[in-house]
Specification:
The chain is of the alpha/beta class. Helix content is 23%, strand content 34%. Strand 6 and strand 7 form a beta hairpin.
């Protein structure tokens, strides 16, 4: 029996483990399927990590950011099993895993933190028409080839999707000597951070075509051409707007999906909006003592927020083991308004909120000067002003316990009122 098993040794798992140890827990085990800790950060060799956590004077790369937490972990007695694949998590908190060193293990845990991260959406998931030649990669796979394996995946590149990884790979491929012809985005706005659009596209004169998509991929053995067309409000290509690009590589940056096979298998309640687990204010799932944090719950824009959310889960897991479950009491359901994609957490137990609780969300469209309204029924219980809101940037608000206590109904809705 282990007090706390953490699945995943990326930024979420590392932060959760350090915080659980700091909170007094001494029997902690991290299970990581890769051969080293750090997760996706190991291939993110660009800087810009940790600006919120370590201050704007620090320009850390992904491996450096991971290294900070790995160093903190070395100062603890947290046990780590690398090269270990978790096969199943059962509702009674048994973790089935396999590794070369230990063989097949069934580890019983008092508490579990799920921190498996996310994966990329592939060409098959978006149904891009055309032949199936070599040279079509997800942006993350290309990033690993270039940054970790030392392979240049192509010389003439078109990027579909303007998520952060795609934008960063536009710059990376350019710096490695490739010609990035364009970045093509199906939505009328970019899905990435503004700073990445400026630093990765504008600074290198790479055009961004909004409301465009690839309508045909041509090539026998390797990609030879990509046909791009403008799309209308109905998401259908507009005839006569086609552009032809001579390319040998297409990178796909068309969204990330939380890695939740283990979560579903355990019977944990899922949110169809986030594609992750439904969680309470302390990141606890519908199974008591099982917590989820990081990109496995919601896809984050900044790793700093992953770390903060995961520390919340680590402290909550320690509290669960030391003091038992959160006391029963009033529970508020948090719902997104029309302009929001989702809200997290989806449920707030008032007994679990000491002073305030954070709610994060993403908007569905770009909004100018706006007010974020927190409503319970027709009653507005809180207002937050913002100069701008964008789908590529996660928003955070802190709701004080005193305001939540005043909610006339057991339901809270977050809405956007544009000026």
């Amino acid at each position: 029996m282990v007090d706390l098993v953490i699945i995943g040794g990326g930024p979420a798992g590392l932060a959760a483990a350090c915080k659980a140890w700091e909170s007094g827990l001494r029997d902690i085990l991290i299970l990581e399927r890769d051969k080293e800790l750090g997760g996706i950060l190991n291939q993110c060799i660009h800087n810009g990590f940790g600006l919120h956590r370590f201050g704007f004077g620090e320009q850390l790369t992904g491996p450096e950011y991971a290294g900070r937490f790995i160093e903190m972990l070395k100062g603890t007695g947290v046990k780590v099993q690398l090269d270990t694949m978790v096969l199943e998590v059962t509702p009674d908190k048994k973790v089935h895993c396999v590794s070369k060193e230990y063989g097949y293990q069934i580890i019983e845990a008092k508490s579990i933190i799920l921190g498996m991260g996310c994966r990329e959406r592939t060409r098959g998931a978006i149904g891009t028409p055309g032949t199936r030649p070599a040279g079509v990669y997800t942006a993350g796979a290309a990033q690993r080839y270039v940054n970790m394996e030392g392979y240049l995946v192509g010389k003439r590149v078109l990027i579909l999707g303007s998520g952060d990884i795609g934008l960063i790979m536009a710059r990376r491929m350019t710096l490695e000597g490739a010609k990035v012809l364009a970045c093509v985005e199906v939505m009328p706005y970019s899905g990435g951070l503004t700073r990445n659009i400026v630093q990765c596209l504008n600074d290198f004169d790479i055009p961004l075509y909004l409301s465009h998509t690839i309508v045909d991929i041509q090539g026998k053995d390797r990609v030879e051409k990509a046909i791009v067309a403008e799309i209308g409000p109905d998401r259908k290509p507009i005839p006569g707007t086609e552009m032809e690009f001579d390319v040998d590589t297409i990178l796909l940056s068309v969204g990330l999906i939380p890695e939740n096979e283990l979560t579903k298998q355990a019977g944990i309640e899922m949110d169809p909006r986030t594609k992750g687990a439904i969680v309470y204010e302390n990141m606890e799932t519908s199974i008591p003592g099982v917590f989820a944090c990081g990109n496995v719950v919601q896809v984050h824009d900044l790793v700093d927020f992953v770390s903060g959310e995961s520390e919340l889960a680590g402290a909550a897991a320690a509290n669960y083991i030391q003091n038992g479950p959160v006391a029963e009491g009033r529970v508020l359901t948090v719902k997104p308004g029309a302009d929001l994609g989702y809200t997290l957490p989806q449920r707030i137990r008032l007994e679990g909120v000491e002073k305030s609780t954070n709610v994060s969300f993403r908007v569905r469209r770009i909004c100018g000067k706006s007010t974020i309204l927190v409503k319970s029924g027709d009653t507005v219980i809180a207002r937050f002003k913002r100069d701008r809101l964008a789908p590529g940037e996660m928003e955070h608000i802190a709701l004080p316990r005193v305001l939540l206590d005043r909610a006339p109904m057991d339901e809270v809705t977050i809405e956007i009122e544009e000026a």
